[in-house]
Amino acid sequence: MPTAQARPRTRYWHHNLLLIVGLLCIWCLVTFVPAYFALELSHYFIFGWPFSFWMAAFGAPLFFLLIVGVYAWYMARYDERARRTPEADH
Amino acid sequence: MSQDATAQQRFNAQLFRGYAVYTLGFCLLVLLLASLEIMGLARHWIGYAFLLVTVALYAGIGIMCRTSDPVEYYVAGRRVPAVFNGMATAADWMSVASFIGVTGTLYLTGYNGLAYILGWTGGYVLVALFLAPYLRKFGRYTIPDFLGARFGGNVPRILGVICAVLCSFTYLVAQIYGVGIITTRMTGISFELGIFIALGGVLVCSFLGGMRAVTWTQVGQYIILLIAYLVPVIWLAVKQTGEPVPQVAASSVLQQVTERERELTHDDSELSVRALWRERSERMQQRVSGLPETYETEQQKLRLQLLRARANDAPMGEVRNLERELAAYPKSVEDARMAWSKARDDYAVRASAPQPHAVPFASRTSESPDAVRNNFLAIVLCLMMGTAGLPHILMRSFTTPSVDAARKSVFWSLFFILLLYLMAPAMAILVKFEIYTDLVGTRFADLPSWVHAWSAVDRSLLTILDLNQDGVVQLAEIQIGADVIVLAGPEIGRLPYVVSGLVAAGALAAALSTADGLLLTLSSALSHDTLFRVLSPKMGPGRRVLLSKILLLIVAFAAAWAATRTPADILFLVGAAFSFAASTFFPALVMGIFWKGANKWGACCGMLAGLGVTCLYMVQAQPWLRQWVLGVSTSEPVVLWWDIQPIAAGVFGAPVAFLVIALVSLLTRRTNPVTDALVDDLRRPD
User: Fold this and answer.
1) What single string gives the DSSP state of each residue in B285-334?
2) Fewer Cβ within 10 Å of end Cβ, chain B: N or C?
3) Domain ranges of chain B
């Protein structure tokens, strides 16, 4: 029964897409917003660094690591759940 | 299943033990050489020891991992644990340009150089979210394999091969060139010999064991390059501030550097040197505007000067300089126009005040901050998409045991890359502090020996010229190349020579590991995707691997030959590889996975259009390329779109490729059940 199977499978996929879009928004936010307003933001300081310099050198790369990590571990758990209940999710 | 799991666990434990012994052994070697240095071992012997021992180590791992089984040869048996695959990817990724170039660029351009850090790390978010899990789920051998299966037929596959060769070969030439430079500096052997020794090390590894040997060697190379980067930066941090965390140390040093920048901007002797540069720049402008008459008169003037110097028994150095200048005199009026306009611009830059390190979008030319910002954002975006499209990085997701491991492997790759990249901004600031406070103000008679050593290697790397003849070094008199900052960093900070040897060994590891990965990508694109899939699909597995090995040799020698020709602009070539990847592979792969409607003709036209736009922009915006292709003189001004430099050309190519894939696919729409099933399978949980 392809139609009955298709619905849960698309649910898995849509859930994945939603997560991707959300994480991508964070990615965009931490990269391009501080870089675009770098001149204005360099008057603020964080850990002794000008904010825009710190953000591009350390902040944004650490956010990237966090994004990739959240995605990897969240999807591992989600896949595991999909495997355990094959009728509902697979 | 549980048996598999215990076997994998035992394998992991064995790996951890093996690499722990390896790391310890390497540290002991460094300590041994350090104590030998104290006892008076000559410097070039330290260089030889590092070169021979590391190359022998890599070759040894290669011989231990030899194989002729296709699954082992192409994807390392698909059982590389995520952590180790991450380490191998990090080594694969960090080329000589990242190891040496990023820190140098940060030193020279301050905040603006952070575009490279942002772009090269942010790209991994795209790899993790859009590509790695699906490529692993698909689970064949190469990226053109995926294009061939997803879009159907040999046309997308062959296009994929062409793009893979285009991206990887330019990048490979740059790596081998870097290897040549490092071995020459380390030991003093000739450039060509250096290339061939290093090539031997690369070949033993990838030729005998393919991806399997390359993976395990890359893990070893990562360990060496990390140690080589951490030792000098932590040492410098402790030396300058007593603080062992380089980022913490650099934040206080940055304030001192900024203070010093302010002093140097208004310093009287600095101002006098800058005025002299401005004078030289104006003189060049007069020469350029006086062409073609000035071509003859300047040559005459130079000849007369030489005759007079000889007649007056002028010092040998002066006569030599004049002779050299006359020998290098432009061959034609057109050459003179190019050379002199370039000299005019160079002098004008040197006549400007030092660039403030932490101020965003500062520039030493007349560019406006808005223009620099546009360029900054374009480079970031282009490098991100390029990172997510480079075949030798994407190929690494095929080597993990599962989809889950592929996602985690991207995390570990980024983690291991950041261990080094988060140090680079600190290293640049620490070295800058040494130069601003230690070197500036030194008397010319007391210049440290590394200054002479490095200017002897190549004058474009380091020249210090007493322009105002006061016998004291001013900042405006120092011309330093980006490559010197890391390689000479330990000497600049007066660390023992063994640290310099270690850094060179690290740079060599960075170059060799990337070269290994690229060689494999190239040879498998040519053998597996072209000869096997397209020309003779009936070939047996043994012959496929053999053929792949033969092609590997041919590609390696072709790249070495190209590297000895000394390509014009290494950094531009590397940048071009990213632009090509961003405008071909990235759009085609993402559309193929996320939109079922993307079809064969859409993908082919899209990749061609992306490549076309990228090439077009590069040709019209890069002066030497424009002269080479269109014959327009390099002294003519270039037209830039939104002030974006040609190095980020992919930022125009990629959107065009996305758009063309969508449009052409919609126009030639046809439902294909096989493709639908393949995409459905990619989207299903593992």
Assistant:
1) HHHHHTTTHHHHHHHHHHHHHHHHHHHTT--HHHHHHHHHHHHTS-SSHH
2) N
3) 266-370
